[in-house]
Amino acid sequence: MQLYRLYLIPLTLLTLACLASVPTDALAQERRQVPEFTLHGEPARPGDEAELRAFLETFRDRWADQDTAGLMAMHTPDTEWINAYARMFQGRDTLGNFLEERLFPAFDPDVSRDESALMQLISIRFLGQDGAVLHLYTDSQRGVSRNGGESARRTHFHLVLQREGTDWRIAHTAIMDARS
To answer: Is 140 contained in some domain?
Structure first.
């Protein structure tokens, strides 16, 4: 019986060490693995998914062009926006002023074009009859990466959309990334 106990402790430790080295989805995603695209919920109308994908293409184009007026036309008047620096804006006019006067002038237009070209859709989540969330990410040169040895910073966008008549508008934006 004592011999069994002598082997049990090292065997348990060895087993735990082996299990710790097996990557799980949660661990892999913590290491920046982007999951496959997923669709959540049911669209209220046929064509909603295609409309949202077209909406995203327009968003990408306007972001690439640093087109503040075009981007603001995609937002509700009472939109809310928070970025990775915890800057919060309420209202389309206030957000538009920030983009036009501070954000876009701080970056070379090529950075916005590259960032936009790399935007990838992670998921669409339908909310009831007139809401949806688009989760996308991009790797960009808009600042340094938190992770050493990486040349690009990964930024996630959550665009909460609501239907206004036949159009979709951004009611809330959350932008996040890892900062050092």
So the answer is: yes
